[in-house]
TrEMBL record, chain A:
It comes from Ruminiclostridium hungatei (Clostridium hungatei). InterPro entries: THDP-binding, Transketo_C/PFOR_II, Transketolase-like_Pyr-bd, Transketolase_C. It comes from the Bacteria. Transmembrane segments: none annotated. This is 2-oxoisovalerate dehydrogenase subunit beta. SUPFAM superfamilies: Thiamin diphosphate-binding fold (THDP-binding), TK C-terminal domain-like. The gene is bfmBAB. Keywords: Oxidoreductase, Thiamine pyrophosphate. Signal peptide: none annotated. GO terms for molecular function: branched-chain 2-oxo acid dehydrogenase activity. Its cofactor is thiamine diphosphate. Its EC number is 1.2.4.4.
From TrEMBL, chain B:
It comes from Ruminiclostridium hungatei (Clostridium hungatei). Transmembrane segments: none annotated. GO terms for biological process: pyruvate decarboxylation to acetyl-CoA. Its cofactor is thiamine diphosphate. Residues 15-313 form the Dehydrogenase E1 component domain. The keyword Transmembrane helix does not apply. The gene is acoA. This is Acetoin:2,6-dichlorophenolindophenol oxidoreductase subunit alpha. The keyword Oxidoreductase applies. The lineage of its organism: Bacteria, Bacillati, Bacillota, Clostridia, Eubacteriales.
Length: 346, 323
C-alpha cells in the first residue's frame, strides 16, 4: 500500500451526524470529486490543473477520470513549477476563466508565495477593483507514516495575514463540496485547505450544487462547560473528545469554523458567553498561527466572558518529526484535547 | 511585411508620445507631487511601439515596473496614467497602484507588476485562457534582461512551449538590472538562446529599430493567431535614465560616458524620423503638426491629473476584495 494511504486507511470511518441535513452519506473525498465534476459541467470557464492530476491516482481520487470526461484542455497535468503555475492560473483568472490549481501537498504551496501573495492576492487592490482573480488553490495536508518535515505541514495560519486572500478549511463532506463550490464561484483568490485524514470522513451530501457562505462557522455539537473552536481535521478530534468527555459528565461545545479568512467571530463569542472557557485547536504550529489569531480576537472583544485563560491545542513549534514515536509526541489528538478540557475545569 | 502610410506615421506618433510624456514626467518629478517611484523608458520607445502596433485592441499586454511605454503604445488613456502617477482618484488604478501598476482593461492591459519576472507567468496564464476559451486573442509579455534571471522566466517559457500558447515574450535587454550589467549576471551574451532551448522561435534584434521590431513581432503575432505557439524576441536597447526616478547614472563608478554617448547617438526616434523623411512620409509641416498635437495632449493630461481629487482616507479598505 502506498505510504500516503496507510494512515488514512487505518482511520475509522468517522460519520458526521446531522439530522437537519438531507442527502446521501458519502465521503469527503467523493464530495470533493462531486464539486469538481458538477462545477466543470456547469461552467465552461472552470478548469483544473496540477502536478499529476490526470494520473491513475487522480489526487487521492478527487480528480480521477475528469480529464476523460471534460477533455485534456480543461483537466490537465503540469510541469513541476508551483510558483509559475500559480501565476499562470492567476493570469487565466484575470482573463476571465475560473482556474483550480491543485497542490497534492500543502508544503509545495510554499514555492508559490510570490505569485499567491505578491500577485494574486493583491491584484484587486492594486488595480482599484478593476481586475479580479477568481482563483482556487487546493492544498492537501498529510499526517503520519513518517511524512516528515516537508510532507505534512499545515501552514494556513501563515497566510491569514495576507490581505486579499480567503481561506476555507472544510472538515465535513457537506462542507467540502459546498465550500469548494463557493470558492469556485467567488471572485477572489481562495486557498482551499484539505486534510488527508478527512478523506474517509462520511456525511450527508446533497447531490445538487450548493454553496456555503464564507465567514459562517457552525456549532457541530452543543455543550455548556467548554467551547472548542476547531479547524480542519481537528474538528474530528474535538468531536471524538466531546463524545468521550460526555461519559465524564463534561459538556463540550464544538465549533467548526469552516473558513478562517474571513473568520466567524460571533459564533465563538456567543459560545464563550455560555461556557466561559475556550480551547482553540488547529492542525498547524502553535505560534503565530490561526489559533493565535482567534485568541487575539477573543482577548480584544470578549475578555470578560473568560473564566479561565485560553488554551491552544496545536502542533508544537518544531518541524514535523519522522519517527513514529516522535510523531505520537508531536500530534495533538482527542486525548490531548480531553486533557486540556479537564485541566480547564479543575 | 508592408505597413501602410497611416501605420508608419502612427509608429512615429506613438514613440514621440512616449518620449514627450516621459520628458514631462522627468521635468515635473522634482516638484515631489508624484509621490511614487517611477521608472522611465526614454531610449526604449521603439520596442513597445513596434510590438503594440500589431496588436488588436482586445489583445493582452502585461508589463513591469517600467511600463509607461507599453501603456501608451497599447492605447491606454494618458490622462488616467498621469493621474495615477499623481495618485489621484481619477488614475487608472484609482491611486492604489502608482507608476508600477498601470492598467487599462479596456485595451487589454490587465495590470503590471513590480516584482521582477512576476508578469511572465501571469501573461502566460492569460494566453492559456485564450487557448482554452478559443477567443483568438494574443498576449504580449514585456520584461527586462533582469527578469530572465528569475525561475518564472524559465518555468513559464517551458509551459507556453509545451501548451503552444498564443504568447509573445519580449525581453527589452537594456543591459542593466539597476546597476548590474547583464554580462555580470549571465555566462553568455545571448538570452534568446535560452528561449530557443524551450523549443520556440527566438530572435535577437535591434530594439531601437522600430521597423525591425514591428516586422518580427508582427510575424510572432501571426504565428500565435495561426495556433503555432509562442515566440521570443530579445530586443537590444538602452535606457537613457538611471534605474529609478530621474537620476542620471553615468560617469565615475557607473555607466561609462562612451557607452552612454553611443546609445544616445542611436536614438530610436531620431533614426525613425530620418527614415520617414527619406521615404517621403514626414516633412517639416506634418512633423510640426504631430509635435504640437502631442504637446497639447501631454499638457492636457498633466493638467487633468493635478486638478483631480485624491482618494479619501475613508476609502482605505476599498478593493481589498473583489465584489
Amino acid at each position: 500500500m502506498p505510504w500516503t494511504t496507510v494512515e488514512v486507511e487505518k482511520q475509522d470511518k468517522f460519520i458526521i451526524e446531522d439530522e437537519d441535513q438531507s442527502g446521501r452519506v458519502i465521503s469527503y473525498k467523493d464530495a470533493l470529486y462531486e464539486a469538481l465534476d458538477q462545477s466543470l459541467e456547469r461552467d465552461s470557464r472552470v478548469f483544473v490543473m496540477g502536478e499529476g492530476i490526470d494520473d491513475i491516482a487522480g489526487v487521492f481520487g478527487t480528480t480521477r477520470g475528469l480529464h476523460e470526461k471534460y477533455g485534456g484542455h480543461r483537466v490537465f497535468d503540469t510541469p513541476i513549477a508551483e510558483n509559475s503555475l500559480t501565476g499562470i492560473a492567476a493570469g487565466a483568472a484575470m482573463a476571465g476563466l475560473r482556474p483550480i490549481l491543485v497542490h497534492a501537498r500543502m508544503d509545495f504551496l510554499l514555492l508559490s508565495f510570490d505569485q499567491l501573495v505578491n500577485h494574486a492576492s493583491k491584484w484587486s487592490y492594486m488595480t482599484g477593483g478593476e481586475v479580479s482573480v477568481p482563483l482556487v488553490v487546493r492544498t492537501i495536508s498529510a499526517r503520519g507514516w513518517g511524512s516528515g518535515a516537508q510532507h505534512s505541514q499545515c501552514i494556513q495560519g501563515m497566510l491569514m495575514n495576507v490581505p486579499g486572500l480567503k481561506i476555507a478549511v472544510p472538515a465535513t463532506p457537506y462542507d467540502a463540496k459546498g465550500l469548494l463550490v463557493s470558492s469556485i464561484i467567488d471572485n477572489n483568490p481562495v486557498l482551499f485547505v484539505e486534510h488527508r485524514w478527512l478523506y474517509k470522513t462520511m456525511g450527508k451530501v446533497p447531490d445538487t450544487l450548493y454553496s456555503i457562505p464564507f465567514g459562517k462557522g457552525v456549532v457541530r455539537r452543543k455543550g455548556s462547560d467548554v467551547t472548542i473552536a476547531a479547524i480542519s481535521y481537528m474538528v474530528i478530534e474535538a468531536l471524538k473528545a466531546a463524545q468521550k468527555l460526555e461519559t465524564e459528565n463534561i459538556s463540550v461545545e464544538v465549533i467548526d469554523l469552516r473558513t478562517i479568512k474571513p473568520i466567524d467571530e460571533d459564533i465563538i463569542i456567543e459560545s464563550l458567553a455560555k461556557t466561559g472557557r475556550l480551547i482553540i485547536s488547529d492542525t498547524g504550529a502553535k505560534t503565530g498561527g490561526a489559533a493565535s489569531e482567534i485568541a487575539a480576537i477573543v482577548a480584544e472583544k470578549a475578555l470578560d466572558h473568560l473564566k479561565k485563560p485560553i488554551t491552544r491545542v496545536c502542533c508544537p513549534d518544531t518541524p514535523t518529526p519522522t519517527s513514529d514515536v516522535l510523531e505520537k509526541a508531536y500530534y495533538p489528538d482527542a486525548e490531548t484535547i480531553c486533557n486540556a478540557v479537564r485541566e480547564l475545569l479543575k | 511585411m508592408v505597413l501602410d502610410r497611416d501605420k508608419l506615421l502612427d509608429l512615429y506618433r506613438i514613440m514621440l508620445s512616449i518620449r514627450k510624456v516621459e520628458l514631462k514626467i522627468d521635468s515635473e518629478y522634482k516638484k515631489d507631487e508624484m509621490k511614487t517611484p517611477i521608472h522611465l523608458s526614454i531610449g526604449q520607445e521603439a520596442v513597445s511601439a513596434g510590438v503594440c502596433i500589431n496588436l488588436d485592441r482586445e489583445d493582452y499586454v502585461f508589463g513591469t515596473h517600467r511600463s509607461h511605454a507599453q501603456y501608451i503604445a497599447k492605447g491606454g488613456d494618458i490622462k488616467k496614467m498621469i493621474a495615477e502617477l499623481y495618485l489621484r482618484k481619477t488614475g487608472c488604478s484609482f491611486g492604489r497602484g502608482g507608476s508600477m501598476h498601470l492598467l487599462a482593461p479596456e485595451v487589454g492591459i490587465l495590470g503590471s507588476t513590480a516584482i521582477v519576472g512576476g508578469s511572465i507567468p501571469i501573461g502566460t496564464g492569460a494566453a492559456l485562457a485564450s487557448k482554452i476559451a478559443g477567443d483568438g486573442k494574443v498576449t504580449a509579455v514585456f520584461f527586462g534582461d533582469g527578469a530572465v534571471d528569475e525561475g518564472t522566466f524559465h518555468e513559464s517559457l517551458n509551459f507556453a512551449a509545451l501548451k503552444k500558447l498564443p504568447v509573445v515574450y519580449i525581453c527589452e535587454n537594456n543591459e542593466y538590472a539597476i546597476n548590474s550589467h547583464h554580462t555580470s549576471r549571465h555566462p553568455k551574451d545571448n538570452i534568446y538562446r535560452w528561449a530557443e532551448g524551450y523549443g520556440m522561435p527566438s530572435y535577437q534584434i535591434d530594439g531601437n529599430d522600430v521597423v525591425k521590431v514591428t516586422e518580427y513581432s508582427g510575424n510572432a503575432i501571426d504565428r500565435c493567431r495561426a495556433g503555432e505557439g509562442p515566440t521570443f524576441l530579445e530586443c537590444m536597447t538602452y535606457r537613457w535614465k538611471g534605474h529609478i526616478g530621474t537620476v542620471n547614472d553615468v560617469g565615475e563608478g557607473q555607466r561609462a560616458q562612451e557607452e552612454y554617448d553611443y546609445w544616445l547617438s542611436r536614438c530610436p526616434i531620431r533614426w525613425y524620423a530620418n527614415y520617414l523623411y527619406d521615404i517621403g512620409l514626414l516633412n517639416k509641416a506634418n512633423e510640426n503638426t504631430i509635435n504640437s498635437e502631442i504637446d497639447s495632449m501631454v499638457n492636457e493630461a498633466f493638467d487633468f491629473a493635478v486638478k483631480s481629487p485624491k482618494p479619501e482616507a475613508r476609502e482605505l479598505m476599498d478593493f481589498v476584495y473583489a465584489r
